[in-house]
Write a structure and sequence with these properties.
By secondary structure, the protein is of the alpha/beta class. It has helices at residues 4-7, 54-58, 62-65, 93-107, 120-131, 152-158, 165-172, 182-193, 198-203, 248-253, 270-273, 275-305, 310-320, 329-335; strands at 18-24, 27-34, 41-45, 70-74, 113-118, 136-142, 233-238, 259-264. It is built from 14 helices and eight strands. Strands 1-2-4-3-5-6-7-8 form an eight-stranded mixed β-sheet, sandwiched between helices. Helix 10 links the parallel strand 7 (233-238) and strand 8. Helix 4 (93-107) crosses helix 5 (120-131), helix 7 crosses helix 8 and helix 12 (275-305) packs antiparallel against helix 13 (310-320). The two termini are 30 Å apart.
Length: 343
């Protein structure tokens, strides 16, 4: 980590996030930013439920992470203060991944970043591993499976909202416990959900398609494509989550060589009502990924010293495994040893 205070274990006092608007691919993206500008970067991705946005999803976790990192939290297209744009000729993940790539380019960020997403944002984070060239140092998905293993409750209850505060409370009860923070979260979410264009942008994703046209979309290679990734990935599931099958993390991990699974005693979105636990898990994961990066650099230097011999080079590449964090998917694949995808 580049922040001296973080290296010595001292925590900087977090400041209030700064809000600004950035032009990404011809669209406006609202961005929250906090933490030391010189520190390593954590990219926070919000949920896709009604009223989701960077501050609605991350207001309680962001200050905790900003004590050690430079935190960037954009609003996806269709949400919060970003343009209410949606696309009907591609998956819902692709435009958001392109938006993030454009954001990093506009901000001049070329070094690998830690990506942390919740729910839909977690699915985007996982998709980034193999469907984007955005360099990732680590990925954390909280309640985001990449789009599969949803329960009937998710399909029947989360996609509808009648526009009232009471009905939004019904939706929110699937995300968090009805504790002392429930009403403030409901108020913030209702305000964001009431912004012009948001309802149509979100509701359009559920627009029915005639049966005769459902096979015109290119087949999804998920999750098979995850076998190419060697980025350290943390999968966080709520033990009482009703929106996904309980085994979704194990199903993802079956395809993801560098996955770690953690569970929190919560509903779907522990970032809303268990921020301390979430921040602790995320910080531990990020620190482990950074240690792996240092080990990788040392191992690569050792490999260079051996002249890349067939025995030392190939064996060392294989042993590096999950220490390839911070590389684009193309480079990861090139460095992986033969048959590594089957491990």
């Amino acid at each position: 980590m580049s922040d001296t205070k973080a290296e010595t274990g001292q925590l900087a006092k977090p400041e209030s996030p700064q809000e600004r608007n950035v032009q990404t691919g011809g669209f406006n993206t609202r961005l929250l930013e906090a933490g030391d500008p010189q520190a390593d970067i954590v990219l926070l991705l919000h949920d896709g439920a009604w009223g989701g946005s960077s501050d609605v999803s991350w207001s309680r976790c962001l200050p905790l992470l900003a004590q050690r990192y430079r935190v960037l939290a954009p609003d996806f297209l269709g949400f919060g203060g970003s343009d209410k744009a949606t696309f009907f000729d591609r998956s819902p993940y692709q435009p958001r991944m392109t938006q993030l790539e454009d954001l990093m380019e506009v901000l001049g960020i070329t070094k690998p970043v830690h990506v942390v997403g919740t729910s839909f944002g977690g699915s985007v984070a996982l998709r980034l591993l193999v469907e984007s060239n955005l360099p990732t140092r680590s990925v954390t998905s909280i309640g985001g499976s990449g789009g599969y293993w949803k329960t009937d409750i998710m399909k029947e209850q989360l996609g509808k909202w009648d526009g009232s505060r009471a009905d939004l409370a019904r939706v929110l009860r699937f995300l968090m416990e009805e504790d002392e923070h429930f009403e403030s979260q409901l108020a913030a979410r209702f305000k964001a959900a009431s912004l012009p264009g948001h309802y149509r942008a979100v509701a359009s994703a559920a627009m029915p398609i005639p049966a005769s046209m459902r096979n015109t979309v290119e087949p999804d290679q998920w999750p098979e494509a995850l076998k190419r990734s060697v980025v350290p990935t943390l999968l966080v599931a709520g033990t009482h989550d009703q929106l996904f099958e309980a085994e979704w993390p194990e199903r993802v991990a079956d395809f993801l060589p560098c996955a770690t699974i953690k569970r929190i005693n919560s509903l779907h979105s522990p970032n809303l009502d268990r921020p301390d636990e979430v921040a602790e898990l995320v910080l531990q994961h990020l620190q482990t990924a950074e240690q792996n990066t240092q080990l990788r650099s040392s191992a690569q230097a050792q490999q260079a010293g051996t002249g890349g011999s067939a025995t030392g080079g190939a064996g060392l590449s294989f042993s590096l495994g999950c220490m390839f964090s911070g590389l684009t998917p193309a480079i990861q694949t090139a460095l992986s040893p033969p048959n590594a995808e089957g491990q």
